[in-house]
Amino acid sequence: MVQKNSQTVVFDGTPLTVIQVAALAAGKAKVKLDTSDEFRARIDRGAEFLEKLLREDGVIYGVTTGYGDSCSVSVPPELVYELPRHLYTFHGCGMGEAFSLEESRAILAARLASLCQGYSGVRYRLLEQISTLLIRDIIPIIPQEGSVGASGDLTPLSYLAAVLEGHREVWYRGEQLTTAEVYSAEGIEPISLRPKEALAIMNGTAAMTGIACLAVTRAQYVVRLATRITSLCSVAVEGNDFHFDPMLFSVKPHPGQQQIAAWIHDDLHTGEVPRNSNRLQDRYSLRCAPHVIGVLQDMLPTTVAFVERELNSANDNPIIDAEGEHVLHGGHFYGGHIAHAMDSLKAALANVADLVDRQIAQTVDPKFNHGLPANLSGATGTQAAINHGFKAVQIAASAWTAEALKGTLPASIFSRSTECHNQDKVSMGTIAARDCTRVLELVEQVLAAGIAISCQGVALRIRDGQLTLQDLQPALQQDLERTAQLLTFLTEDRPLEQDLRRLVEAIREKHWVLYA
Length: 516
Ligand SMILES: N[C@@H](Cc1ccc(O)cc1)C(=O)O
Hints:
Number of strands: 9
Strand content: 5-15%
Structural class: mainly alpha
Helix content: 40-55%
CATH superfamily of the largest domain: Fumarase/aspartase (Central domain)
Bound molecules: tyrosine
Number of helices: 18
Low-confidence stretches: 1-5
Radius of gyration: 26 Å
CATH architecture of the largest domain: Up-down Bundle
Number of domains: 2
Order of helices and strands: EHEHHEHHEEHEEHHHHHHHEEHHHHH
Shape: elongated
Mean pLDDT: 96
């Protein structure tokens, strides 16, 4: 899976970026665990401190006690080593679809990044086993449902814990196989989890954080593509270029909004604004595009910061301070920041889908599109009467938009008291991240329709001699060519499902080079 000469993501406790996690998840980056003696020693020090504590004090939460509300139950010494297996076993109750291969790799990467901070009291050997899974692309199959995202992603991460010990199932070379058969084929020894180790794997936010890494990197491309679609729609409907003037935006100083306006302005290579324009004001979906896409652009840096801090944090409980010899009890498994980041990201994303859906509506409609044919059908002569162009695609885009908007209900407000009221306030961050992923899929579909329709609109003006290719900025010319590689100009009605699927795939692959 891992491509040759591709980048390498090194797990050594130093900060990782969402881009690195996304590259790793896509199979485009190699994985390397720091093998230096210094790093090994730093990690092992936590496990050694716990061993010492166990010998000397005999009581450690989650090691010699039950979990959560069951912490008042003491576990007799002869059963302490059986406790980790019980933890992942009773949490083996995940439901729903499994996370995708890409998502599951991101989840493993997020857990490894957290354990590499060195505050979880696990052995270096455990980190090696997780990195072996990533390197050999043996990926646990993790059901998506069943985490409240505040006692960590306990249930999803139990699937990782179980796989480390050689149980449950994995994806391996495109097949779903038992971990046991893959380990024996690959000559991998299952690990025997030490007393704190199952808890350390499960008591964190890796499921929601891994998914959030993928969501924010996809959202960065959504911003750019929605901006370019706005420019193309403006050209297609002969919109008013002066809505994006730098002077206009200098008096409303949201930097992301200004950036979007500047990009559109450059795309449209607008000249000097007339002293008193007699041009009409376009509808809001064009005129206010920087104000809608700009919200997403302005919130992305904060969203990325939330996700990267969580990614590079010790999200576990208890935290093991081997240096100072303390066991610190807290709530670092709580995914509140990811919950908020994903809840707000999905709302901003769905607003962009709504904007593009309205741009599509203007562009296909002869009442608003300044002389383009109905539904942008390229059919001429008598054939025009029976051709319906992008009519159904516009209807579909309306449906995808509605579904995206419906998916924006915040998850974090649905906190429930659970686990005998020990977990009486929880984040629901994993649900927020999954919702955000679903919203993203729908947004990308709307953008696929948007790029298809805006390019057809511009191509119609060129075909009908109202515009030449050279009138367009080189970047827009290139977009038309890149779109034409995937979607031939629509003259005669044809089922567009496969074309749209290609376009969605191309969005995921960042096929259009946008504002580099
Ligand atoms: N997250 C809990 C531990 C826990 C683990 C498993 C459970 O099923 C419940 C609670 C804590 O650290 O306090």
